[in-house]
Amino acid sequence: MEYTLTEQIRSYQPMNEQEERDKELILHCLETEKNIFTRQNRLAHMTASAWIVNPERTKVLMAYHNIYHSWSWLGGHADGETDLLKVALKEAREESGIHHVKPVSEQIYSLEVLTVDGHVKRGEYVSSHLHLNVTYLLQAEETDVLHIKEDENSNVGWFSLEDAVAASTEPWFQEHIYRKLNEKLVNIK
């Protein structure tokens, strides 16, 4: 029996207060907002992110994001797709060039509500909004050839777990997201 994303989020066990509160907000938006899986909803969009590790789980794959001027995880908008694992896998391939990426688990790895400041994308202003984000733990080989996606990033590379946190220039992500994702690796088999 396949569970809907809402059911998966409802059954997700938060690791900390941030995930607990964000889970509540994501569920509220899924139940009350229209077009939440598309960018037509100008307040919030469903997104999927990938924390991509090597098989030994000693390194993480990150991209240098052109909009945020920071090394970050990979991911993107649902754009109408309700299978967010599928979105995370697609974005991982598109943003890094890796072909041999697979889920460590099909279960949700983490939940976040992320603020996105207003910015210009493809010559058009995008107002500040929220990303209602579901993160999946993916695995890839370090030997896979990497490619940038010029309209989104300018570099892609493997980092040790600690260096991945340090490479980010976004303090909130360092403290509340990337460290948390690394801490959770301890409990993954």
From TrEMBL:
This is NUDIX hydrolase. The keyword Hydrolase applies. Keywords: Hydrolase. Pfam families: NUDIX. Residues 43-181 form the Nudix hydrolase domain. It comes from the Bacteria. Belongs to the Nudix hydrolase family. It comes from Muricoprocola aceti. One of its GO terms (molecular function) is hydrolase activity.
